[in-house]
From TrEMBL:
Organism, as annotated: Marinomonas polaris DSM 16579
Protein name per UniProt: Inosine/xanthosine triphosphatase
Record-listed Mg(2+) binding positions: D78
Pfam family, one: NTPase_I-T
Domain Non-canonical purine NTP phosphatase/PRRC1, first and last residues per copy: 15-181
Cofactor entry: Mg(2+); Mn(2+)
Cofactor details (free text): Binds 1 divalent metal cation per subunit; can use either Mg(2+) or Mn(2+).
Coiled-coil ranges per UniProt: none
């Protein structure tokens, strides 16, 4: 990792218009670079995977595809990083769970990929996802909420907001940025 951050402003292109994802990127970069001003620009970026990824592999690829799309289609030449977050589900030994993959692409083309913790999902929710429903819509129906995916998400609902979609995304991004902070070890 050789990214140089000489400027006091770090410019980040986020591959989403979802405020939860944009805020998570801003929070993560602000935590990792407390002496910099973080400027985030949002961009719709296709994942080229299903709207509800059902495997770890598709979720990871979706995040990486979004980050690469941002890099290739950003109108600005002065971005330092291109960031994407992709929520997905899969079935593990412990049962079904939702999680996210994050992808951070430096302006020098170096890709960092990270993953969040798992949130267990009830079997009845997972079965609906297998029937091509999206997690946000299922959660809205179960908890009588509106557009929870742009708020606390399933994570917020199932943890009584002790954790939220944004907090989990932020943590995954912070961890994925370790190579930028300590390039001598990566």
């Amino acid at each position: 990792m050789t990214t140089k951050l000489g400027s006091t402003v770090i410019r980040v292109c986020v591959g989403s218009t979802n405020p939860v994802k944009v805020n998570a990127a801003r929070q993560a970069f602000s935590q990792v670079f407390p002496n910099h001003t973080i400027h985030c620009e949002e961009m719709h970026a296709p994942s080229d995977v299903a709207d509800q990824p059902m495997t770890e592999a598709d979720t990871r690829i979706g995040a990486q595809n979004r980050a690469r799309y941002c890099s290739e289609h950003s109108a600005s030449n002065d971005m330092d990083f291109f960031v994407a977050l992709e929520g997905g589900v899969d079935e593990f030994e412990e049962g079904a769970a939702t999680f996210a993959y994050v992808a951070i692409l430096s302006n020098e083309g170096e890709l960092m990929t990270g993953r969040s913790a798992n949130l267990p999902l009830p079997n009845k929710v997972y079965k609906r996802l297998q029937a091509n429903e999206e997690l946000g819509q299922v959660m809205d129906e179960l908890f009588n909420t509106d557009n929870i995916r742009q708020k606390g998400g399933a994570i917020g609902l199932f943890t009584n907001h002790a954790a939220t979609r944004e907090s989990v995304y932020t943590q995954a991004l912070v961890l994925a940025l370790a190579p930028v902070l300590h390039p001598e070890h990566f």
